[in-house]
Design goal:
By secondary structure, the chain is an alpha/beta fold. It has 16 helices and 14 strands. It is globular and about 70 Å long. The structure holds pyridoxal-5'-phosphate (PLP).
């Protein structure tokens, strides 16, 4: 029988990276898919659906209120817009022109990352606000923030991730200083699986992805102060319109929250631990590969870190990564530390047997290199963004993966 992938002319993807937006985010579970399917066949008043989303978000996060948004980047944009306009419809209809003195948004320079793939400062500018980057790439001190919080600042943005240098401002300190100056704090917590943390620590608004760990359709949740959440919802009558969330996104988010709160976390972890053991054992069959287990708040899964000793494999990690990412099936993992000889495999979306497919693919890359040695053309070393662009810029041409 023709597979789904074949029918639509798609290459199969083994996703060990987790719910990355570029890989279609989460593999949505049956119960949630069924709810989305049912919703799509019906009509509904969107405000009422959003009212139910509010209840689910409050239950999940402990915030005063919540609203569903189109995606995390959209949630960040409407959150920033909300701090610029409040619920003043006149102001909402005029963005990105800002009437009134508060037009700046503060962010630590080290936090200017891709909100997804959109640079954080570009996302701030999209609302009409002026980004003010404070500190240096690797450091930010209290005095940087204190000096930046002038009366023309509308909000401060904080990104909740574990990839940052250690000497940026910790969240507690950031919130304390912003509170003392009356500046609302907006948190990008797209990947955070602790849905109560940012609110409990004093965030005014927090944005979590709906299509990443929660496992819904493309969406995000914005949670926080009721007045600001209300103002977020109203942005749909203004700049929020081109980033609006549909009924399938909102319903998917509600259903995903229900499933998240009811999930048997221990059973999932036990199953993933067994998978990790098989995976690590399989790695040991290829000289130069070693696996170990990692847990982080930024994934609910067991993750397996694979270290590649290039002396033994004869192939550097970046080359293995590149070849896995252009093979058939396409195999993707977290390649953030690939230049340090490490690849990280998230087990959430792997099926039993995928561990063998992955190791077999790596073994044949190593084998191939040994056989052909210097005869094959050395590919150019490419970092993760170059690699992504390499394919994307030729997506309509003959063979974008070449
Ligand atoms: C994925 C991600 C985003 C973007 O999420 P989208 O839903 O694709 O807009 C933003 N911020 C962080 C930290 C992310 O990891």
């Amino acid at each position: 029988m023709q597979s789904f992938y074949d029918r639509f002319g798609l290459r199969k993807v083994i996703n060990a990276r987790g719910p990355a937006t570029v890989l279609g985010a989460s593999r949505v579970k049956d119960g949630i898919r069924q709810d989305i399917y049912d919703m799509l066949g019906l009509s509904v008043e969107m405000w009422e659906l959003q009212r139910r989303a509010n209840e689910a978000i409050v239950k999940l996060t402990g915030a005063e209120a919540g609203v569903a948004a189109g995606c995390t980047a959209a949630g960040m944009a409407i959150s920033i817009a909300a701090t610029l306009t409040g619920d003043d419809m006149g102001k909402i209809k005029e963005l990105p022109i800002i009437r009134g003195p508060k037009h700046k948004v503060v962010i630590q320079k080290g936090h200017v990352i891709g909100i997804g793939d959109t640079p954080a400062n570009q996302l701030i500018r999209l609302t009409g606000a002026e980004p003010v980057e404070i500190g240096e790439a690797l450091d930010c001190a209290s005095y940087h923030l204190e000096a930046a919080l002038t009366p023309d600042v509308a909000a401060a943005v904080y990104v909740m991730m574990d990839v940052f240098p250690p000497n940026l401002l910790p969240f507690d300190k950031f919130v304390e200083i912003c509170k003392s100056k009356g500046v609302p704090v907006i948190v990008d917590a797209a990947y955070d699986t602790d849905f109560r943390h940012s609110i409990a620590k004093g965030a005014d608004l927090v944005v979590h992805s709906g299509q990443k760990w929660l496992g819904g359709a493309t969406s995000a949740l914005v949670a926080g102060r009721k007045d600001l959440v209300h103002a977020c919802f109203l942005q749909e009558l203004g700049i929020g319109r081109p980033m609006k969330v549909g009924k399938e996104g909102v319903l998917g988010l509600i259903s995903a929250i229900e499933h998240w709160l009811a999930r048997d976390e221990e059973a999932i972890i036990r199953q993933q631990e067994a998978f990790a053991e098989r995976f690590i054992a399989a790695m040991a069959e290829v000289p130069g590969l070693t696996g170990s287990i990692k847990r982080t708040r930024f994934s609910p899964s067991v993750r397996v870190v694979m270290e590649i000793d290039e002396e033994q494999t004869g192939v550097p990690a970046w080359e293995i990564n590149m070849k896995l990412g252009t093979g058939d099936p396409v195999i993707k993992m977290d390649d953030y530390a690939v230049y340090h000889g490490k690849m990280e495999f998230d087990l959430s979306f792997l099926d039993d047997g995928d561990e063998r497919t992955i190791i077999k693919a790596i073994a044949s890359i190593v084998e191939e290199k040994k056989k052909n040695g210097g005869a094959v053309r050395q590919p150019e070393p490419m970092n993760r963004l170059d690699l992504q662009y390499h394919t994307l810029r030729r997506w309509l041409d003959d063979n974008p993966r070449a």
